[in-house]
Amino acid sequence: MSESAVQTGAEKSYKRIRSSIHSKKRSQQIADTVSFLVIIILAALVMLPIWWMIRSSLMKSLEIFKWPPQFFPKEWLFSNYNIKPTTFDFWRYLGNTLTIVVPSVVFGTATATLCGYAFARLRFRGKALLFSLCVGSMLLPTMVTLIPLYIAWSSLGLTDTYWPLILPYLCGGGAFNIFLIRQFIKTLPRELDESASIDGASYFRTLVSIILPSIKPAIIVVALLIFITTWNDLLQQTIYISSREKYTIAVGLTTFMGSFKNDYAGMFAATCLSFLPGVVVYLLGQRHFVEGIVMTGMKN
Amino acid sequence: MNQRGACIADCLCGRLAVLLSRKCVIDMTNKKKRAKIAVKEQRAAYLFLIPALLGLTFITYVPLLAVFGISLTDLNVGHFIKGGTMPPVKYVGFENFKEIFRNPSIDFLNSIKVTVVFALVAVVLSIIYSMLIAMLLNRKMPGRGFFRAIFYIPYILPATAVMISWWFLLKYDGGLINYILVSLGLGKSYFLSAAKSAIPSLAMIAVWTSGNLIVIFLAGLQNVPRVYHEAAEIDGANAWQRFWNITIPSMTPIIFYNLLMSLVVNLQVVVPALAVTKGGPGKSTMFMTYLMYQTGFRGRELGQAGAIAFVFFIVAAILAFILFATSKSWIYDEGGEDKK
Question: Which of B5, B147, B160 comes nearest A126 by C-beta?
Answer without folding.
Answer: B5
